[in-house]
Amino acid sequence: MNAQTLIPVAEARERILATITPTFPERVALSKALGRVLAEDVISQRMQPPADLSAMDGYAVRAADVTSVPARLRVVGEAAAGSAYALALNEGEAVRIFTGAPLPQGADTIVIQEDTERYGDIVIARESSPVARHVRPAGLDFKEGVTGLHAGRKLSPADIAFAAAMNVPVVIAHRRPKIAFFSTGNELVLPGATPGPNQIVSSNNDGLSALIEEAGGVPHDLGIVSDEAHAIQSAGRHALDCDMLVTLGGASVGDHDLVQSALSEDGLNVDFWRIAMRPGKPLMFGRYREMPMLGLPGNPVSALVCAHLFLVPAITRLQGGQVRLRTTQARLGRSLPENDRREDYLRASLEDAGNELPVATPFTRQDSSMLSLMSAADCLVIRAPHSPAAKAGDVVTVMPLR
Ligand code: AMP
Ligand code: MG
Fold first, then answer.
1. 252 close to ligand 1 (CB < 6 Angstrom)
2. What's the CA-to-centroid distance between 271 and ligand 2, angstroms?
3. Do 299 and 196 belong to one domain?
4. Least crowded by CB within 10 Å, which of 147, 180, 330, 345?
5. What is the CA(258)–ligand 1 centre distance, in A?
């Protein structure tokens, strides 16, 4: 490929996703299944409710016996959740009933407690109640054998409760993909160290680790690697049992940007390495031996923005999930000049505006090294290549970051 070719962001993402296949399925207990993507449907093992149940505390009666009120009925027994009244209800009879208890045979409605007066064995119904009122019929929620949750679904807390109710304690989900990564740079030290006069603290390792985890992957931090080919190659080999390799820094064309050349000598086939975006033009993607390899820029903001745009979707695909870029609309909080040929991702605040679209205000400084602004950003304002100048109030597309 021509070294000058800049690939559009969407095409780069498509090319990355096209090479990625989901991890193998495994059995996962519900207690560990939050955020996991189903590899197989969840089939209901029972009907819920299993019988007609009372939805209220009160008296189970025949609706015909309470059409004219007050009605006087004889209380012949009791039904609580987990225990039924064993006999059938006859004309003029009532059974004291509690929420979740099975409706006795012959009863077809509930008179709620608040509408009754009780005198020993006698209950007076002050209000009538039509057939089926306050009754949850058998199978109202779901039937046995139905597909409650479909393969490909990312499990929410409610989904997990639903699977439990279907009496499915273990689901089949894709394995969480293991993502190996390392930073390159002779200037870098780990957080907590005492940096030398020309050194800086690596922010990318911990930042990327957190993002991988948030996306559903298992981070495998290989640390900091010096700007030397053999060190980069050695680090790469430590990633070979993982599902994907991510490098940070050294992806550009400077004398010390060795990732591409070092790994290319060791089994890397580069697909592309320049993208028409800002921040993050030098972004590399290829196949390192068997695994997908993403080379992120070293500038901390570029690294995180590119990880949001390319790595998070890749992790979603590895997990068997459906990639959907979460974008929404907002109104600009200030004017912007026309854009050049690179798609721009501007760090911005996002303010709620009641019933109107929220207001996104890009920060005046957009330096791709400034983590204080990345941390303060609520969203990225996305500007297509060659967007004309925009004024405050214009509608723009934003990608929320939190
Ligand atoms: P590079 O992509 O290696 O040319 O790095 C671009 C810029 O990002 C340089 O100023 C590096 O010092 C900085 N940088 C690279 N890696 C990291 C890192 N892990 N944490 C913080 N800054 C970094
Ligand atoms: Mg570097």
1. yes
2. 21
3. yes
4. 147
5. 13
Q: Which residues pair with 58 in a beta bridge?
A: 97, 112
Residue located via tokens 């390319």: 310
In a domain, 1, yes or no: no
Residues 41 and 69 in one domain: no
Residues around ion ligand 2, judged by CB within 5 A, are 185, 249-250, 298
Distance CA(275)–CA(15), nearest Å, equals 12
With CA atoms as reference, report the closest residue to 155 among 10, 313, 38.
Answer: 38
What would the DSSP string read from start to end of 311-336?
Answer: IHHHHHHHTTPPP----EEEEESS-B
Residues 347, 386 within the same domain: yes
Q: Among 184, 186, 200, 206, which is best to mutate for testing ligand 1, by the most ligand atoms less than 8 A from CB? A: 200
Cβ atoms of 291 and 239 within 8 Å: the answer is: yes
Give average pLDDT by consecutive 10-residue segment, the chain, 402 residues.
Answer: 76 96 97 97 97 97 97 97 94 97 97 97 97 97 98 97 98 98 97 95 98 97 97 97 97 82 95 91 92 96 97 97 94 97 97 96 96 98 97 98 90
The token pair that represents 86 in the structure block:
């064993």
Whether 289 is covered by a domain: the verdict is yes
CATH number of the structural domain spanning residue 116: 2.170.190.11
69 belongs to a structural domain: yes
Number of domain units in the chain? 4
C-beta of 183 in contact with ligand 1 (< 6 A): yes
- Rg of the chain in Å (alpha carbons): 31
> Is 80 among the domain residues?
yes
Residues spanned by the domain of 274: 9-23+175-318
Q: Do 99 and 209 share a domain, yes or no?
A: no
> H helices within 19-138, ranges in order?
none
Regarding whether 202 and 289 lie in a shared domain, the answer is yes
